[in-house]
Every structure is written in C-alpha cells, then in structure tokens.
Amino acid sequence: MLKIGPLTIDPPILSAPLAGFSNYAFRQILRELGGVGMCVTEMFSARSFVHIEAKRGEHPGRLWGVRHEPRPLSVQLWDNDAELMAEVGGRLAREYGVSVVDVNFGCPVPDVAAKAESGSYLLRYPEKIGDIVRRLADACKPTPVTAKIRLGWTQDAINAIDVAQAVEEAGGAAVTVHGRTADMFYRGAANWEEIARIKPHLKQIALIGNGDLRSAEDVVTALARYDVDGVMIGRAGLAQPWIFREAAAALHGEPIPPEPTASERLDIIRKHFAFVLEQHGPEKGTRLMRSFACQFSHGLPGARAFRCNVATVCTPDEFYALLERDFPK
Questions:
Q1: Which residues touch 233 (CB under 8 Å, ≥6 apart)?
Q2: Contact 49/76 with Cβ under 8 angstroms?
Q3: Are 234 and 264 in contact (CB under 8 A)?
Q4: Cα angle vertex 322, ends 319, 327, to 5°?
Q5: 57-63 long-range Cβ contacts below 8 angstroms, 24+ apart
Q6: Which helix (H) or strand (E) holds 101?
Q7: Annotated catalytic residue: which of 107, 140, 308, 314?
Q8: Cα–Cα distance, 64 to 267 (Å, whole number)
C-alpha cells in the first residue's frame, strides 16, 4: 500500500507524466481499463500558467478536464522560481482541488533543463530543490507535494540520496526516482539498485521507482526485490495501457487478464479518439491521434504499414476509414 500524505494509493501503481501523451483522453482510457492507482497530468511550467492567464484569460490546455475528472489525480509543475511555483501550486490545490502537486526535477530535455535551468538541471542544487518544495508545501497545505527526480545530473555525479533527503526535509510527501541520470536521457538501463539505495536514508516519505517497467511481471519483481513503496509506469503504458490492470491483478494474486485482441484494441482507439475530439476538435484532434494510434498497433502484424498510412490522415472520417481498412487484424 502506498501512502502519499493523507492519500492511500491502491494499487501502488502510478502513470507517468508524458509530454504530448498524458492528456485528459489518455487518463480517461487508463481509468476505464483499470489498475492505475493514480494518474498524473502532462507537466507544464508555472510561468506558462501565469502568462497564458494574463494574455488569454485562461489556463494551460494541459489542465483541460482536471477540475472535474476522477480523483486521485496529480498535476505536475516545472520551473525554477520558488515563489512563482508556490503561487501556482497553491492555486492548483485551492481552485482545482487536485490530489497532489508534483514537481518535475527530472526532465532532461534541453529546452527545460539547459535553456530554462529547470527540470533535471536543478539536481545539481539540492538546496534549491528544497527551497522550491518547502514553499510549495506551505502554499498547498493540506494537499501533498511530491517530487520526480533522476539519479543525478551525470553518471559521475549521482546524488539522488541528497536530493531525496532535501525533498523530505522541506515537507515533501513522496519522491519518484527515474533510474537513469539526466545525461543518459532514455539510453541504457534503469538502475533499480541505485533507486533502492535511497530508501534507508528517508525517515517516512514514500519512495516510488520508475524506469523500464514493461510488463506485469516487471512491476511485481520491482516491488518484491527493491525497497520501494510504489512504482510509476511510463512509455510502456502508451503501447499497452492495459499493463496497469495486468500489474494490479498480479499484485493481488489474481490471474492476469489476456491482452486485448486486435478488435478490442480498435474499440479502445475509437473511444480514445472520441475523448480527444471532445477536447481538441476534428482538425487538431486527428493530428494528435496519429501518435496514439501508432502506439496501439505496436507488436501487431502489419503495424509498420499502418503507421505509415495513419501519418497522412487529416480528418476524423479519414481516420475511422483507415482503422477499418488497415489496422492490423
């Protein structure tokens, strides 16, 4: 059982915040398939929240649906301005009633880390991370604040223990650790031994492991072998969003449900597309759905040809017609 402040997350399996994917539609599909203990939004910057509100009188599109969708739900912020983060985090807690405010200290993408000096860039400065978490925790009370980090900035400078301790001492309720350093991006293998080394250095907050969980068996093994309180599944959930229900069943000692057939995958895609269209409309919604459709065809015969063809569709009618004609059977 995973405890994050006053919240009990069961099963102890979280979805990862994936830019361009972890939107309202995807979160709804995960909930309908079952097995996810808590969904997390795509990350967005505190600066963009303030800028978009001032310029357009609205909030970032990545918050679409957040006010009304089921809980528990975590919203992820990034930035390096502690005061601004506290202002926005407090508003998320009060106005949106989110379950958790999570801070991204792990993103290695240059626009975030190098250019904006945020995300994984801040791993080099545990005291700065502590300041951000402290101000956020004060501003968000009683909503818990958590942090997502990596093992360190480089493989020669692994300092996840120091960072995790800074998060806890500042009032953070949990820390999620991706088992790679920032300079690795997504290359190599996630180091779960290094993730587990953190736990004895924490007094009471939860430790959540992330990286290379590709099956229900991987989840069961990670929770049994390593000293973590929960796990977070990222990119494997895009190609097989049913991995959460499979993992949940395995953790509860129940038979693992069979993977969806090609026909069942088609039903999931249609339902997903309906959610996307609800938010984005036909033109943008169709463009966005191309990537999701490619993920859902992963591993099926003829998937490559389908991926090539789906890249050219521009309207919902074209998308639906292509599904009927070319989706791998």
A1: 13, 14, 15, 16, 210, 213, 219, 243, 244, 247
A2: no
A3: no
A4: 115
A5: 61/279, 62/23, 63/96
A6: strand 100-105
A7: 107
A8: 24
Distances from the Cα of 16 to the Cα of 63, 304, 311, angstroms: 16, 26, 25
- Give me the tens of pLDDT residue by residue for the chain, a chain 329 residues long: 799 999 999 999 999 999 989 999 999 999 999 999 999 999 999 999 998 888 887 788 899 999 999 999 999 999 999 999 999 999 999 999 999 999 999 999 999 999 999 999 999 999 999 999 999 999 999 999 999 999 999 999 999 999 999 999 999 999 999 999 999 999 999 999 999 999 999 999 999 999 999 999 999 999 999 999 999 999 999 999 999 999 999 999 999 999 898 889 899 999 999 999 999 999 999 999 998 888 888 778 888 899 999 999 999 999 999 999 988 87
Q: What is the DSSP string of 134-159?
A: HHHHHHHTTS-EEEEEESBSSTT-B-
Tell me, yes or no, if 314 is annotated catalytic.
no
The pair of structure tokens assigned to 3 is: 């405890």
Which tokens is 160 given? 């996840």
Residue 100 CA to residue 75 CA, distance in Å, equals 6
Count, residues in the chain: 329
